[in-house]
Every structure is written in structure tokens, then in C-alpha cells.
Specification:
Blueprint lengths: L1 H26 L1 H35 L5 H18 L3 H11 L1 H21 L19
Length: 141
């Protein structure tokens, strides 16, 4: 878990700064700033549109008496994608757009849902597969 956080908060911003520096070298500062602002606005609009669409799907599933599991996972992915698009950077923009494109998002959401269902039904998770070193704060009697 620490390695993932290190990657997220240290290496991704460094790579983003490097890529932005390359972009500034290619198209200059003002067009780069304009591109950052444009992707932020476009990302917010796209996230809103996709979010409302997913909300309608959730309501329809509930009206028909089905659990909207797939739609809820996609809704969280849309939220994460929207946040990523409003974060300045090239990698975060690519990730954000990927989360907002229905085909990619649906495929990833389906795999996430299947993984979650499997971990719940078998009682395993990434943490229980680890080193086997558990902190037992609860004593069963």
C-alpha cells in the first residue's frame, strides 16, 4: 500500500512536470496553460454529462427492482475521472478521459465488480493475501 501511495504522490507529479515541461518547449507557455484550462472545463462538462446519464441508469435499475451494482461502480469511476481531468497534467488527463469513455469505463467496472464479488464470496482480499502478518485486535470468545 505504501508503494502505491509513493507512486501516486511522488512519481506521478514528477512525470507530469516533466511532460508539461516538454509540452511548453514544443508549443510555448500560453498555449500549454490554455490546454490545461480547456481540458479542465471539458472534463468537468463531460463528467457532468456522463454522471447524469449514469444516475438515470441507476434510477431505472432501481425502478425495475434490480441492484444497480455496475452503475454504482461506473458512477465512482466517473467521479474519479472528473477529478483527474481537473488536475493539471497530461497523464491525469489521459486517465480521466479513459474513466469517462463509456466503453473503457464499462469494461473496467465489470472487472472491478467481478473482483469485488469474488473477494466477498470467498472472503479474501489483497490484504489477506499479503505477508500473513495480521494484527489481531479482536479476540473471539
Amino acid at each position: 500500500m505504501f508503494g502505491r501511495l509513493l507512486l501516486l504522490f511522488i512519481f506521478v507529479p514528477v512525470i507530469e512536470l516533466y511532460l508539461l515541461g516538454l509540452l511548453i518547449g514544443r508549443i510555448n507557455l500560453m498555449p500549454t496553460i490554455g490546454l490545461i484550462v480547456l481540458t479542465g472545463f471539458f472534463g468537468a462538462a463531460l463528467a457532468r454529462w456522463q454522471g447524469l446519464s449514469t444516475m438515470r441508469k441507476i434510477q431505472e435499475e432501481m425502478r425495475q427492482g434490480r441492484a444497480p451494482a455496475q452503475e454504482l461502480v461506473e458512477g465512482v469511476m466517473i467521479l474519479i475521472g472528473g477529478i483527474a481531468l481537473m488536475t493539471p497534467g497530461i497523464l491525469t488527463d489521459l486517465f480521466g478521459f479513459a474513466m469517462l469513455l463509456p466503453g473503457i469505463r464499462t469494461s473496467i467496472a465489470r472487472k472491478l465488480k467481478e473482483s469485488l464479488v469474488q473477494s466477498v464470496t470467498t472472503g479474501t482480499s489483497d490484504r489477506s493475501k499479503g505477508s500473513g502478518n495480521q494484527d489481531d485486535d479482536v479476540i473471539d470468545i
